[in-house]
Structure formats: structure tokens, C-alpha cells
Fold:
Amino acid sequence: MTANRGPRDDGATSLCRAIAGLAFVTAIIGTAATGFAHDLIPGATREEPSTTFESLVAEACSPCVKDAYVVSALPLSTLRTVGFGPSVSSMMSRGGEIRIEVVRAYPLGRRDQQFLAMRATLSIKMGDGQLLPVASGLVDEEEVPMFAAAIDNISKTASRRPAEEPIPDTTELEYHAGSLRVGTIRIATGELAYLQAGNVRVLRAPTPFETSSALFFAVNDLTGLHRAVSDAQGRIKRLRGQ
Structure:
């Protein structure tokens, strides 16, 4: 190699260094995220990016081109719940929407260095019928297939009633990736599914009485959510193949 490197070589070198450093950071974050669903991490928690996508955009994409492709908008019907807390019941009575998108970013003029992820935006319906976004979260490209598989497994598991005696008063099932958490909550009087968006390292998982950064919806709607995430996976593959 010559001593005089072109702008393209310098950019590629910077990108490689950023990816190597961020892989180490991501490994540490993944270890710290292990714990009980309702436990907060003790002590001060730094606000680290929840996804590699966000980290790479911050570290290796300037000037940066950002694209978004809407894959699906899943409407959430209003439901009347029994046995759940006032905040959960109020949200269920409003209805809302989960919008699934594929987002792409790449340095200006270098689309071959694109970063891809799936984004979910959670909105509730206001009195005038307008949608109010309440939270959004991302899942990295390589984790989208696992997220789709988890939703499918949770949906199938939720359809089976427990056979053990005595039956638990509360049963919670959840999976999280990036800055999204999906799950179900079953109590004696019913069962709901939810999607939560935000920093799942510090956010408590939803409970029958709390809706922090989450939307609750009918368990049957998990099928539609699985389909939407699978469609996002397909769109990512097509963009990556360009």
C-alpha cells in the first residue's frame, strides 16, 4: 500500500475499527442485560445505544443517509379486560397501532456500507381517532429472524392452557432483542399480549397493572405481529441483496 490513502480507504478503516470496538461493547451489554424480568440493574446505568445499528450510525455514518420502508401497520382493536389494572384497561379501551418498518443508513455516497434494522413504533388512539406515538424500538438485522421465531413460539405457547395444579395466579412469558420486548401475561381472568419499546436494560417488563412504554393487545394479534416481522425480515434480505 502507498502512504497516500484515498478517502474511501480511510472510511473503510474507520468503519472496521468502529465495528471491532462496538462488538466488544455489545458483548458487555449483552452480559449485563441478563436478569429477572422485574429487576432493575443496581447502581447507575449508562445510556448506551441498545442496538449495533444505532452505535454504527453514531460512530461511522457522517454525513449519513437514512431511509425508512414501512412494512406493515397492525391495528389494535379496543378490548374490555377484567382483572387487569386501570392503566392497562384504559389503554386496551383506546386501541392503537404497531407500525413495523425497515430502516437503513449508510455514509453519503457509500451505499455498499449500509446498516439495516427493523423498527417498531407503538401508538395509541386518541379521542378524536388520531394516533399518538408513545414509544419506538429497534432490532438489529441479524436478530430479526430470532425475534420473529420468538413471537411465533410465544403465540403457540399462549394458546395452551397450563395443566399443572395449582394453576399459577400469574404467568409471564417474554423475549427481548435490541430495544424491543414482546410477551404475554396470563392471570386467572384472562390473558394479554404486549410489545414494549425502549431501553429494556432498565425498563421493567409490563405487569397486569403497568404499561410503561408498552402496548397491550389480544393474544390472537401475535399472529399478525409475527407476519409483519417476517415481512420485515424479507425486506431486509432484499435490500441487502441489492
User: Anything to note?
Assistant: Helices lie at 7-32, 52-60, 86-94, 144-158, 222-240.
